Amino acid sequence: MKTISPRKQRRRARNAPLHKKQKMAHAKVSKEGRKLYGKKLQLRKGDEVIVMRGDFKGIKGKVEKVDLKKSTAFVSGVELIKNDGSKVKRPIHVSNLLIINPNTNDSKRFNKKTTKSSEKVKNK
Prior knowledge:
There is one protein chain. The chain is α+β, with helices and mostly antiparallel strands. The protein has a single domain (26-123), classed as SH3 type barrels, CATH 2.30.30.30. It has four helices and seven strands. The chain has helices at 6-15, 18-24, 31-37, 116-123, and strands at 26-29, 40-42, 48-51, 60-67, 72-81, 87-93, 97-101. The protein has a seven-stranded mixed β-sheet with strand order 2-1-7-3-4-5-6. Strand 5 (72-81) and strand 6 (87-93) form a beta hairpin. The longest helix is centred in the first third of the chain and has 10 residues, at 6-15. It is globular, with a radius of gyration of 16 Å. The termini are far apart.
């Protein structure tokens, strides 16, 4: 039975196995990209994104790494400067990113069954 309790929903998301966390690691797609790819896409290394929330809002960059356990991504250009002068990559939660240009090198990524949204675009 499904629950609507926020506490239990957060616990399920936190303790989910990696193959389910991978499906949770989706980010919204820009308006131009929605016509081709749909409303959300799974975030992958090499995608071009914009940070939508937080201290680094508005920064464009490429995804360098996606951490499924923490549902975060490391974006080029998003760095903190430590007191000793060294730079450290700052993880950003995947829900705070907007995909501008997805990485199309993987042929299997977009060759899945057609969704309702992509069928509507093809029929027009």
